[in-house]
Amino acid sequence: MAASDSSSRYANAMEEGQIVHPVESEKQDRSDPTSPALSSSATMVPFTRSSSQVLKSVKSFPLTVRKTWTDLVAQEDRIPVTIHKLEDSPKGFPIVASYLDSDDSFMLYRRFGFLHARLLLNKQDELRELEEELRDMDNDDWEEESSRRFLQSRELDECRDLEDGRKSRQGLLEKIEKKILEYGTLLQQAQQLVALNRPADRDHRSVINFLENQKPLFKSEVSFIYEKEDLVTLRPGRETAFLDAFVERVIRICNCKPIQRIFCTEETRAKTDLPHIHYFTRGRINTFVTMIITCFILVVLVVPIWLLYHLTAASGTGATNPLCIGVLLSFTLIFSAVLSLFTKARRHEILAAAAG
Question: How many Cα atoms within 13 Å fall on the side-chain side of residue 340?
Fold first, then answer.
């Protein structure tokens, strides 16, 4: 009876409004803006934005990105950069060294292949004589019964008493070791020089033009640049690619202020004020060449798909015909030609790309 009386009193209180159900209280607090539940700091209020505010934020995003990029560029421009102008170097070997160091394309030097060959031949013949001397010494010890033990023990050979002015085997081996190390170092150096790239014709011509126009050295001192077969370049990268040479040639022919702004940075333009010398930023040229190669490859890959789709749709049967095979073979050949002419890809790399 007590429980029923309490429940009846609770129901009567709810009807009179003295007690509010928790769920109904939460609904009331959400609907009433003046409710203390909304004004409480612990209550989470959903954040809503109008479409106009969202559109305004989207429109201002490029300006924010542009401002951030401008600030970064301005911060980079504030970094002090030392530029060595070509004209500041004294005329002679200093200005020649400054010119060769001003661009990777101009780092042309002789590898002295003839001298390396002569030195290698000389070291080789010296080692041949020492080898014959060692063989004779070994044969002499083997022919004598009492001396064979010196060939079978290094310690006994080092402690043997030499007579009649005979040379020590250990001394001869030390001499051979010294000579063969010199020979190996020279041989490895010659191999590394041969592995370096040959200079491109355009770079070789640029250095010749500078030396002939400026005349910084005597005639005998400039003769190294005419030894084209003996010259090597320290320039890394795709110096033998056809497209790189073509782009650089076009840029030099069409040299004007817009071209210089696109392919030349402020630091590069500050290298010289001479009218017949023009520098271009290598990184920007490589980026432009990469974009051209990417466009070529996309065209070569997308166009055959489009053609095959239309040829198959026109036939109505979807069967492969000789025309489709001809399209595939033609564009595979064009793709291989693009890789071989515009890049420095090797033969097996071109073969793998064409097969894939």
Answer: 12
